[in-house]
Amino acid sequence: xxxxxxxxxxxxxxxxxxxxxxxxxxxxxxxxxxxxxxxxxxxxxxxxxxxxxxxxxxxxxxxxxxxxxxxxxxxxxxxxxxxxxxxxxxxxxxxxxxxxxxxxxxxxxxxxxxxxxxxxxxxxxxxxxxxxxxxxxxxxxxxxxxxxxxxxxxxxxxxxxxxxxxxxxxxxxxxxxxxxxxxxxxxxxxxxxxxxxxxxxxxxxxxxxxxxxxxxxxxxxxxxxxxxxxxxxxxxxxxxxxxxxxxxxxxxxxxxxxxxxxxxxxxxxxxxxxxxxxxxxxxxxxxxxxxxxxxxxxxxxxxxxxxxxxxxxxxxxxxxxxxxxxxxx
Length: 329
Known about the structure:
The protein is of the alpha+beta class. It folds into two domains: 36-56 and 82-102 and 270-326, no CATH class; 104-266, Ribonucleotide Reductase Protein R1, domain 1 (Orthogonal Bundle). It has helices at 2-63, 111-120, 125-139, 147-153, 180-184, 222-227, 232-242, 249-256, 323-326, and strands spanning 83-88, 91-99, 104-105, 186-189, 195-198, 205-206, 215-216, 265-266, 272-282, 288-300, 311-316. The strands form four sheets. Strands 1-2-9-10-11 form a five-stranded antiparallel β-sheet. The chain has a two-stranded parallel ribbon with strand order 3-6.
């Protein structure tokens, strides 16, 4: 009987030890997970401020655009360069330069231009027609209830069209017929079956600038050039030339003589651009972290003779990088 009692006590001790061990492992796993989450959150904050610092440096490059090297070449800002890569002691960042002058103004674009743009971005003709009519309805002042308003009021949550100029390009997500892929862009396949990025309306339209102004030949998307009536062979020629470096003003002037549509293209240096910075921390081993943070700002620099510095028209605390930066190894 005594042996049975001792065996029962030993079994109870073993079960208690197993339970305590399980609790200890659970606590250790929880503590480890919380520690890793805290470290990731801290790295995210550091990456955020690294991206913010890179964006500030890019703004300084704009302000220092007149400074040249001894050979006369630009030392900091070079018009037409699509992105800059900055190296810091704690990491690296890529800043994308997206001039608003390379986009069509959504509030002034003609219906035919909007239709050609949507078709160039891959929209079905029927859907493209609906979206164009919805955009025209959205930006046209009226007090009457339109057919598009009736559609919007049937949704949950319900709303009415603004019936005024768009103030934010994201308003396009509300118009009838719009899809996330058309607005944000997506991926398609080339002739060899490889995935290639396809721009969206957010990359081709803006709420800033003149509706019928010149388009920057160095940054306008092929779809934007198609929208203003430039033929495909001329677009291919421009895109091939851009691979060799920014197109110079004298080259743009020569291209403008090729037809009326080509006269919409020029080397536009109006200081209004969206800067998008993506940062990655440097790990102790020297390689870059997989964690990335992207911020963006639409910036307008002060004109000549003005005493004010750059003006941040809009700040994006969290932004989506371009496809070239997404592929950053």
